[in-house]
Each structure stands twice: as C-alpha cells, then as structure tokens.
Amino acid sequence: MKLINKIYDSMDAAVADISDGSSILFGGFGGAGVAYELILALHRQGAKNISAVSNNPGYHEEGIAKLIAYDRISKLTCSFPNAKDSYVFRQKFEEGKIDLELVPQGTLAERIRAGGSGIEAFFTPTGVGTEIAAGKEEREFNGIPCILEKAIRGDYAFIKAKKADRWGNLVYNKSGRNFNPAMAMAGKITIAEVDEIVEVGELDPETIVTPGIFVQRVVKRSGL
Amino acid sequence: MDKRLLTREQIAKRIANDLQSGDIVNIGIGIPVLVSNYVGPDAEIIYHSEQGVLGMGKKAKPGEEDPDLVNASKEPVTLVPGGSYSHSADSFAMARGKHIDVAILGGMQVSEKGDLANWKVKGVKLGSIGGAMDIANGAKKVFIAMTHTSKNGDIKIVKELDFPVTALRCVNRIYTDMAVIEVQRDGLVLKEIASGFSVEDVQKVTEPKLIIDEDLKEIQV
Hints:
The complex is a heterodimer.
Chain A: E1 7-8, H1 11-15, E2 23-26, H2 36-45, E3 50-53, H3 64-69, E4 73-78, H4 87-94, E5 99-102, H5 105-116, E6 121-124, E7 138-141, E8 144-150, E9 154-164, E10 170-171, H6 180-186, E11 187-197, E12 217-220
Parallel strand pairs in A: 1-12, 2-3, 2-9, 3-4, 4-5, 9-11, 11-12
Antiparallel strand pairs in A: 6-8, 7-8, 9-10
Chain B: H1 8-16, E1 24-27, E2 46-49, E3 53-59, E4 77-85, H2 88-96, E5 102-106, E6 109-111, E7 116-117, H3 132-138, E8 141-145, E9 157-158, E10 173-175, E11 179-184, E12 187-193, H4 199-204, E13 211-218
Parallel strand pairs in B: 1-2, 1-5, 5-8, 6-9, 8-10, 12-13
Antiparallel strand pairs in B: 2-3, 3-4, 6-7, 10-11, 11-12
C-alpha cells in the first residue's frame, strides 16, 4: 500500500514542471509569508511569460521582483504596485515590459477565495465610482451600488507556511498567513514552502488553517 | 489671538478624543498612525490591520521583531493579549462586511458629499490602492485626518473631486489642522475651529459653503 506523500526533496523538483505562460499565485504581504525559496527555484528553472498574482511586486530584487527583473513575468495582478522599494516593477512597467491589473486588496483576496470555492463572480461595492469600475457590470443590491468582480485561479500557487505534514496540512506564522490560505485554495497545483515538516497527526486538527486537500506539494526550506 | 494651525500630533490627539472604548479601529498611514499614542489607558481600543492582525499592538522593540508580524506599512509590530490572526480574505471580510467601527485615513481631497480621494495624485499613471477602497467603503465610520490645504496651498475640501476616487459618500468626519467638519446629508457642518481662526478663515480655504454648527467650539487639544 502506498501512503500519501506530498513531500518533494527540493525546491527545484517542486517547480520543475512549470511551463511558459503559466499563471501563478504568490502568497505574501510585503515580505511576510513569501515563498522566497520557491521563487528562486522558479528563477533557476527559467519559465517565462508568467501571469503572476501577488499583493506586492517585490522589493529591491527580492521575491518576485527578481522574476520581474529577468522579464519572466508578463502580467502582474496586484494591489500595491508602487512602493518606494519596488523600483524593479516600476521600471519594467514604464518600459512597457509588464502589464498591470490593479485590484483593491480586499477584492483581490475575495476574488482568489471565490476562485478556490467554485464561485465564478460576485458583486461588491468596493471600487464603485473609481477607475477600478471601468468596463465592469454595475448593479444595485439592497440599494447599494456594486460592481461585478470575477474569480481568480492559478495553474500554481506558491505558499509559505510554518509547518506541514505529508498530507499537506498547513499552519502559518502570525501575519505571514495573509494571502496564503486563499491562494492555496485557488491553485490547481499548490506548492507549500515550509519551515518544518512534522508527522501526520502532530498538528492539532483544531489549529490547521489550510487542510491538505488544498495542497499538492510540500517542500522544506533549506534556510540558506 | 494667534492663529495656530494644529500640529500632526494635535490632529491625532483630537481624533483620539472621539474614539470610544470597545471600538474596533483601522488606521491608515500618515497622521492616523499617531492616533493610538493619544488614546487614554482606560480605553480599550482594538486595532485592525489589513494584512490579518486584529489586536495590533505597539511597534516591535529591537530584538523583538518577527518579519511575519508587520503592520500595513510593513513595519514590525506586536500583538496584544486577545489578539488574533486571520488570512487576507477574512481580514477584508472584517472591513468589507461592516465590522470595523472606525477607519482613520489620510486624505488628498474630500468632497462635500463625503467622497474621498486618497490613493493617487491627479495625473499620475501608477498608483497603489492596497486596502484603501475596501476600508473606506466598508468601515461603519470614516474619519479623515489631513492638513486643510496641500503644501502648495491647494484646497482639499472641494465640491467635486478631481483626484482619482477612492470611495463615494464614505467620509463622516474631517479633522484638519484648522477645523473639525462633519459630513451631513445637507452639506459640511463646521463643528470646531482651531484657536485664533475665524469662520471666514476656514471658509476661505474650503470650497463648499460651510454650515456653521449652532454649538461651534474651539478645538481642545
């Protein structure tokens, strides 16, 4: 009998099959909860024309800023593209080398949660009367004007968690949780980079944030 | 009497006086960050931070920082006893679902209808929204903390926004270095004035015609 085992031996093995043109959801808020080692492995792997979803564009040349610097990302869906240290994105955007879909952060999180939950679209008041509403259907519910927002899914999701077991159950560290649980749900293949791998049964079932059903691959950080 | 504009700290202190023990408060960047410094020790305010912290505490001291525990400006912070973490979609459900009592935000322009512009300067191509639109729309009350005019002297309280909109009809109160103004259905009501200023002084730098509160007071800070 073969036991369930989602554990991969290396970051490189976990990202090996990602092809050009894939869509990838990247967890993280600023530098908290970012799967840095998976991103570096993807950089080594070389896939390009990636459609990326990430709250931030990476700072300096770290995180997805490294992928952007090497022209691997062709479109970024993001709520906070313009920060002091996100000069890599700013430069590529000004050069026309990367497209931007600007999304309010709560709408971004909800579109991802919808994507993982079988909800194709939803109406929300956020963005009504703003440039975000351009081209979107508007309707009123209970007297409240709303716009239609569509689900976001990814071919892959890059997740950073604190602990995992071989079933893919995950717990997070503090606000490093941020987009990771919703993205884990919305990724077709969700890859979790974790600080520690424990035996099945060790994680308290009452505290598991992402049940393993949403996770396909688990890799332990080298911490280098 | 000398006309004295309020300092950023005094604006923050004035806002703190309007918070009530038990309020769940979301704080934006700029002057709003200073508000928590002026909340009395007997008031229990719970701070919500968009990236998934309810019960955010003070900034982390050196040696106490955890890169996974940050505020909305990505600075290391702490969690108070009773605080909790949630993922982004739930954290924004708190904001979008009308669970936050007060959001204290910065402002670039506010209209007489309570429309808010605070995420991008006019004419700029690339701006960051972050949680601004969700929180301005979703909080039960929105307090704006800002200078009455811009650095160049431009009027910020206007009839119609010409900066990119954050949210429509969302602002309840405007706290500036010169006045406290309430947004009501029939217009902007001048409630309080900084020491030494006259109604005319405030009106001169406010585009819409102000309604003067019967009980107009001097700002106490």
